[in-house]
Write a structure and sequence with these properties.
Blueprint (H helix, E strand, L loop, with lengths): L31 E3 L4 E11 L8 E15 L8 H15 L2 E6 L2 E6 L5 E8 L2 E9 L23 E3 L3 E12 L6 E16 L8 H14 L3 E4 L5 E8 L2 E10 L2 E8 L12 H9 L1 E4 L15 H13 L5 E6 L6 H21 L7 E5 L12 H7 L1 E6 L1
Parallel strand pairs: 16-17
Antiparallel strand pairs: 1-3, 2-3, 3-7, 4-5, 5-6, 6-7, 8-10, 9-10, 10-14, 11-12, 12-13, 13-14, 15-18, 16-18
Length: about 400
């Protein structure tokens, strides 16, 4: 289990001990001294045992986090775990905390109040570790873009960027998560790499705090978040005036890396007036490229001419019935893409019905990325795969 850090408070010290602070409301156990300064994270998360394993016995406590480690004081005999357990039970009882779990050298407790706290104590021979989480929502502190920042994304306070590395014809592989199997998607275009390093004398932000700030900004940009499993890494794709922008944020102690690729826009041609009828007659299906808002099933205004061609085709042949199939590229989770493609196909059917086509002549289906027309390793290939197909019934 990964232990996280938090708030600094006054401590009760053994005679001759260094003036290192405890994590309130807990104090150093008898016979032990703090091994160093408590480590602080303004926002982080800690998983704690809170009950029996068979009943889902873990909680994830998020907020301001403090971690302190204690070791046996010089010249002191090492107290056994039972003594440490009894010491902390007395401390918890004195402040009115409720013990949620206790076994195998571990105690988890909750202290209610205006600032709810969750506390966990781990003891082993010669050493005790304490983690206290003061539950609260994250503070959003990402700055507005300035200096060396990427023009759409600011930076975390207390971090300083060096000059960006820019390659107008660069390539970066972006890690995309999918329950069916993750993949690395190669993206080419104007590639930008920024490295932010912690300023002297400042405290490093946690991976969770960095991720919560950048992810909020990306959502404001309408981004599709593609990698969220690891708090240290966020991968996203969003649209800027028809151009796909890919971005990855990676954090580690004292450093944040930002990778961006701005793809060249790919415009797919509209169907020629006779193409729909000819392809349907010859192949039984035809691909058309209808523009939607990024990562949504909302038709863009420039979809109107393509929809008009489909309406004209259907009105010219009253016996024609079609299935409107939605297709996506392979970026993102398979099930997510299937749902999005189904919603887009339904939106096309609704638009056609709204223009006078009988609903009984139309069906819709969402196939996601299961039937690509091209590889998904280039912008052009991904653009070809994002389509609607009209299939003769």
């Amino acid at each position: 289990m990964r232990l996280l850090r938090g708030v600094l408070f006054a401590s009760l010290l053994l005679p001759g001990a260094a003036a290192f602070a405890d994590c309130t409301p807990l104090q150093s156990p008898k016979g032990f001294v703090a091994a160093g300064a408590a480590e602080i994270k303004a926002f982080d998360k800690v998983e704690m045992r809170s009950g029996e394993l068979g009943t889902g016995g873990y909680i994830m406590a998020e907020g301001k986090v403090c971690r302190q480690t204690y070791r046996v004081a010089d010249g002191q005999a090492s107290p056994d775990e039972a003594q440490v357990d009894a010491d902390y039970r007395r401390q918890l009882d004195a402040v009115g905390a409720e013990i949620a779990f206790a076994a195998n050298g571990q105690i988890t407790a909750r202290l209610a109040g205006d600032a709810e706290r969750w506390m966990v104590i781990y003891s082993q021979p010669g050493e005790v570790s304490v983690v206290v989480v003061e539950r609260r929502a994250p503070s959003y502190v990402l700055t507005a873009p300035s200096g060396h920042d990427y023009r759409l994304i600011g930076h975390m306070p207390d971090y300083v960027a060096g000059p960006p590395e820019i390659n107008a014809n660069g390539r970066i592989d972006f890690h995309v998560e999918d329950p069916a199997g993750d993949s690395d998607v190669p993206v080419s275009g104007n590639a930008i790499h920024l490295t932010y390093r912690l300023a002297d004398g400042k405290t490093s932000a946690s991976d969770v705090e960095v991720a919560s700030n950048y992810r909020r900004r990306l959502r404001e940009l309408g981004a599709q978040l593609l990698s969220l499993r690891d708090d240290a890494r966020t991968v996203a794709r969003f649209d800027e005036n028809g151009r796909a922008i890919w971005l990855s944020v990676y954090s580690q102690p004292g450093e944040i890396s930002l990778y961006v690729v701005e793809e060249q826009p790919v415009q797919m041609p509209p169907p020629a007036p006779t193409q729909l009828q000819q392809r349907l007659a010859a192949d039984g299906h035809v691909a058309v490229y209808i523009n939607f808002d990024f990562d949504k099933a909302t038709l863009k205004p420039d979809a109107a001419p393509v929809l008009a061609e489909i309406v004209a085709l259907l009105l010219a042949d009253p016996a024609l019935k079609l299935t409107v199939e939605g297709h996506t590229d392979a970026v993102g989770a398979h099930e997510y893409n299937r749902r999005l493609s189904a919603q887009r196909a339904e939106a096309v059917v609704k638009a056609l019905v709204g223009k006078g086509v009988a609903a009984a002549r139309l069906q819709s289906a969402g196939l996601g990325a299961t039937r690509p027309l091209a590889g998904n390793d280039t912008a052009e290939g991904r653009a070809r795969n994002r389509r609607v197909e009209l299939v003769r019934n």
